[in-house]
Specification:
The chain is of the alpha+beta class and 177 residues long. It contains 4 helices and 7 strands; from the N terminus they run βααβββαβαββ.
């Protein structure tokens, strides 16, 4: 399993491309907004902490984070990708975020659909999962619109800025429907 071909967006508003070092300051700027980080487990203190996400990933089990870019300006408006990739289990955890100015336009839902279909059909993943803080109802709605099933509550699953956080587990399994 290798991330050698990128998914393509048919959206008129946004496109998907590799993250570049030039995208990092914009990404950091909105990840540190209270309205964003209060519903995520991000705890970045500097743009340098995000630099490992920039560039192509050709190695199995490596991080893959793509830029969601405004189609007209090519400016970053969000990211989507995988972490916790398990080639032997053909699974990965999906994660995404958007700058608040772009919320409510269906972008997270449409990019989620594109990336999940790509993961199943082109990468060969059997399972795409996502963990969501209990407070992040917007993200839960994105997953549900994309056919993810809620599997349960993971209590004290991940530390969130020094405190244990409860996360809901969602999954999208290929050929499950």
């Amino acid at each position: 399993m290798r991330f050698t071909q990128l998914p393509e967006s048919a959206s008129e508003l946004v496109t998907l491309r590799l993250l570049t070092p030039a995208d990092i300051p914009q990404w950091f700027a909105y990840l540190t907004m209270p309205v964003v980080f209060e519903h995520t487990s991000w705890d970045v203190q500097s743009p340098a902490e995000l630099e490992r996400y920039a560039g192509a990933s050709q190695v199995p089990s490596a991080l893959l984070r793509l830029c969601i870019a405004d189609r007209s300006t090519d400016r970053l408006v969000g990211t989507i990708g995988f972490h916790t990739v398990s080639p032997e289990n053909r699974s990965a955890e999906l994660a995404y975020d958007l700058t608040p100015q772009w919320w409510g336009q269906g972008i997270a839902s449409s990019m989620c659909a594109v990336v999940v279909q790509w993961a199943h059909l082109h990468v060969g993943l059997l399972r795409v999962q996502a963990t969501v803080l209990e407070s992040n109802t917007r993200s839960m709605a994105v997953l549900q619109r994309n056919g993810f099933d809620r599997e349960g509550l993971l209590r004290s699953y991940r530390m969130v800025r020094g405190r244990p956080g409860d996360f809901c587990m969602y999954s999208h399994v290929r050929d499950a429907r």
